[in-house]
Amino acid sequence: MTFYESEIKRIRGIIHSNQGQIDTIIGMRNYIDNNYDSHLNLEVLSHIQFVSKYHLLRLFKRYYGLTPRQYLINKRIEKSKEHLRNRTTVTETCFAVGFESLGSFSTLFKSKTGKSPIEFQKEQLSRSK
User: Comparing C-alpha atoms, which of 63, 73, 54 is closest to residue 23?
Assistant: First the structure.
């Protein structure tokens, strides 16, 4: 083991001393990654992990720098970009990634990417030609 590897291991032990919390948060992120298209909220996520929703919120924010809701929205926007690149309509994309309202999807998409979903799709299609 090199000096740097031992230092990383030592620092990791100081920063991330509670493996149970780490496992809970990683499990939560994996669940969101695999179920981003379903109806998820803090109540559902805390029930799955058997943790208080407020404790879960604090842990997630501490380890990832985002709330679970922010992470979920980012994941949905990322997946919606893939759908739009594959020529899925904006409406189909909206519902495929788990949004319940076309208006909220379009607003969030534009705030995150700077373009409306249809502008993004047209730009991607023109690049592929």
Answer: 63
Angle at the Cα of 79 (from 75 to 83), degrees rounded to 5? 165
Closest CA to 79 of 57, 108, 119, 103: 108
Question: Is residue 71 a contact partner of residue 29, using CB atoms and an 8 Å limit?
Answer: yes
Q: How far apart are CA 56 and CA 59, in angstroms?
A: 5
Tokens of 22: 């780490």
Q: For 84-120, write each residue's pLDDT tens digit.
A: 999 999 999 999 999 999 999 999 999 999 999 999 9
- The residues, ordered by sequence, that sit 6+ positions from 43 with a Cβ below 8 Å of its Cβ are 53
